[in-house]
Amino acid sequence: MATNLVEPPQEGSTQRFPSLPNHLEKNLVKVFKLLSDETRLRIMLYLAQEEELFVTALCERLNQSQPAVSHHLALLRDAGLIEARRDGKHNYYSICREHFHSIMGELFNSFNDPDENVIRIDNFVLKQNLS
């Protein structure tokens, strides 16, 4: 399934940003606020690339102390964006894909026009090719 940017709607169109359910708005604010921090965004990117990393590996990649990295990990874990797995002395972290995908899926479904397989956000239109 591919997504392509298509032409903006015609001049004078009344299509605007849809209103979001309250719980989704709160989840999005929380996620975007967390990911607006460079260190937390980089942690998420490293975890997305490697699937799972332990704290020491993240400290080395981020060039930050263990307490600093652990603080960021705790915030991401509390928000449900990552999960921990203990193996011996090491805590391994990975992205909690179900939760993140659920939030993003709900966001894009709120823009979806099921009759046209398009997502409209103000003057931007994304079209899904279902082939």
Gap between N and C termini, in Å? 6 Å
Low-confidence stretches: 1-7
The gross shape turns out to be elongated
Query: Judging by the overall fold, what is the CATH architecture of one domain?
Result: Orthogonal Bundle
CATH top level class name of one domain: Mainly Alpha
Structural class, from secondary structure content? Answer: alpha+beta
Q: What order do the helices and strands follow?
A: EHHEHHEEHEEE
- Alpha-carbon Rg, integer: 19 Å
Tell me the CATH superfamily of one domain.
Answer: Winged helix-like DNA-binding domain superfamily/Winged helix DNA-binding domain
CATH topology of one domain: Arc Repressor Mutant, subunit A
- Report on the biggest sheet: 4 strands, antiparallel
In terms of DSSP E residues, the strand content is 15-25%
Number of helices: 5
Report helical residue fraction: 40-55%
Widest beta sheet: strand line-up: 1-7-6-5
Q: Kindly state the mean pLDDT as a whole number? A: 80
Record the SSE blueprint.
Blueprint: E1 2-6, H1 22-35, H2 38-50, E2 53-54, H3 55-62, H4 66-78, E3 82-87, E4 90-95, H5 97-111, E5 112-113, E6 118-121, E7 124-129
Antiparallel strand pairs: 1-7, 2-4, 3-4, 5-6, 6-7
Write up what this structure looks like:
The chain is an alpha+beta fold and 131 residues long. The chain has a domain at 22-109: Arc Repressor Mutant, subunit A (Orthogonal Bundle), CATH 1.10.10.10. Helix content is 48%, strand content 24%. It is built from five helices and seven strands. The protein has helices at residues 22-35, 38-50, 55-62, 66-78, 97-111, and strands spanning 2-6, 53-54, 82-87, 90-95, 112-113, 118-121, 124-129. The strands form two sheets. It has a four-stranded antiparallel sheet. A three-stranded antiparallel sheet has the order 2-4-3. The longest helix has 15 residues, at 97-111. Mean pLDDT is 80; it is low at 1-7.
